[in-house]
Amino acid sequence: MRTQTSTAVNLILLGPPGSGKGTQAVRLSQAMNVPAISTGDILRKAVHDGNAIGRAAKAVMDRGELVSDEMITDVVAARLGEADTRPGCVLDGFPRTVRQAVALDRLTIGRGRVVVAELVVPEADLIRRLTMRRVCEQCGINAQPAAPQCHCGGSLVSRTDDREEVVRDRLRVYECATRPLVDFYNSRSLVHAIDGTLAPDVVTAHIRSAIETSLGLELQPTTVCK
Predict the structure, then answer these.
(1) Span 169-194, average pLDDT
(2) Alpha-carbon distances of 208 from 3, 9, 81, 221, rounded to whole Å
(3) Which one has a higher pLDDT value, 64 or 186?
(4) What's the DSSP call for residue 142?
(5) CB 1 within 8 A of CB 216
(6) Is the pTM for the entire model greater than 0.85?
(7) In the predicted structure, residue 223 carries a pLDDT above the cut 90
(8) Which residues pair with 92 in a beta bridge?
(9) What angle do CA 98, 100, 106 make, to 5 degrees?
(10) Any idea which residues carry the catalytic annotation?
């Protein structure tokens, strides 16, 4: 029987906006006992706080475009410099371009193994999910579908980049800039395609299975926060 090991695991979640990366990042970080690093959450917090990175990123994000490779790489490099990432991490939203992936190669030297899960969801489902999505006005995290308000007590609002016309632009940007990442990581036999239309519990189970099969370890049972 496979048993849990101390092998550091860095899980990269690929998939277009609305594919469920954020939900799976939380679940899998619990299963792997490593932090989930969401570049979107980091940038939205920076926007909320009004710091230099936030001000620079806000105009770009409101147009549905991606921030520069250099800016987002600096954000991730700073986060990976924190001690809690040494056993590994779950990356949600990074890398988004091949240039970022090359930068990540450098950042993860000597930091354990890499597994890539691609969440596959049809465009019509993505548009429906994103235009219905709400976020907390106070802390910026995505809300649970039926939640009346955020766990922090903040009001739930629609994101400015979740308007349908912006969503369609974001999906086009993904196809142009991020889709080549699948080929980049496929050349190393690292990608596991996962059906993102399945129930979240099933998607989590499939990704866990992919990790366990790839690395020969057994993850702890997942505790799902309500």
Answers:
(1) 90
(2) 14, 12, 26, 10
(3) 186
(4) B
(5) no
(6) no
(7) no
(8) 13, 38
(9) 110
(10) 21, 96, 133, 159, 170
